[in-house]
Amino acid sequence: MTGARRGHCQRKTDMDDMDAATTSVASMASMAASTTTSATLLLLLVLSLQQCQGTDQDEYAPGSNVSIFPYFDFNVPRNVTTAEGQTGFLHCRVEHLGDKAVSWIRKRDLHILTAGVLTYTSDQRFTVIRPDRSENWTLQIRSSQGRDSGVYECQVNTEPKMSLSFQLNVIEWKAQILGSSDLHVKTGSSVTLTCVLSQGPHDLGTVQWFRNDVLLSNMLAGDVHPNALDPEPRLRITVAWTDALTSKLYISYAKPADSGNYTCKPTSLADSASVNVHVINGEHPAAMQHGNKNRASALSLHCLVYSVALVVMRR
């Protein structure tokens, strides 16, 4: 009885040992599987990081987070004004161009003007300026004309295409003297010549007045009013800057010696303007700057009445 009980206890102990061993093996297997999974995940993570690093090396500068994919520098003038006959410049700056190419396109007809440093138009006024290893691709338009005004695109052959638009304005920039180009005035009268220079592509500067190609500022000091009580010079120049540059030449007590060709010449690149002044004794049939329109109207009315009276009398 005692031996049977001992045998039963021994079998139970053996079974417990087998269960413990099985549990231990299962635990070890589970740990091994967990380790394998972790190793696999770790390997995938490393491969992913390497791939990302490879991509970063292509698109980012080493040691920085700044993209080196081509991009435009927007800190350039994109609305450019130039005068007819002058050379216009459109400055396009592309950073990190790499193996890409820059082209200039005229938007109104989609004509390719330049590609790289080559010109693709028969109009030789268009060229591209690109100093060696420079980020600047400048479209140069020599002898600009009014028809050159419009939109131009600087393009980079990326995928998708990159483009930046520029507006070119070509204007006729010249001074203008208001009124007739031939002016007749009476001796002793006052004359005012007004020269206007509109806004242009450059600083308006100022203007100089010439009479028969002689600078008037050299004449002003010693030429005073005939009235000794009036110390003001007979010739006086004023200049005002508003939306336009306006210069006025005042001549008081005009005399025959004041006759001649008067030129308003800007100190900028704008063209000058001229007018002929004739100082005469007595009336002149041509328009006088200070003529009496009322007197002329009255004279015309008198002539009309006289003509009608003659017709009535003849009847």
UniProtKB/TrEMBL annotation:
One Pfam family in the UniProt entry: V-set
Entry GO terms, CC: neuron projection membrane
Signal peptide: none
InterPro entries to which the protein is assigned, alphabetical: Ig-like_dom, Ig-like_dom_sf, Ig-like_fold, Ig_sub, Ig_sub2, Ig_V-set, Zig-8
GO biological process: synapse organization
Record domain Ig-like: where: 70-157, 160-276
Protein name: Zwei Ig domain protein zig-8-like isoform X2
Organism annotation: Thrips palmi (Melon thrips)
Gene name for this UniProt entry: LOC117648290
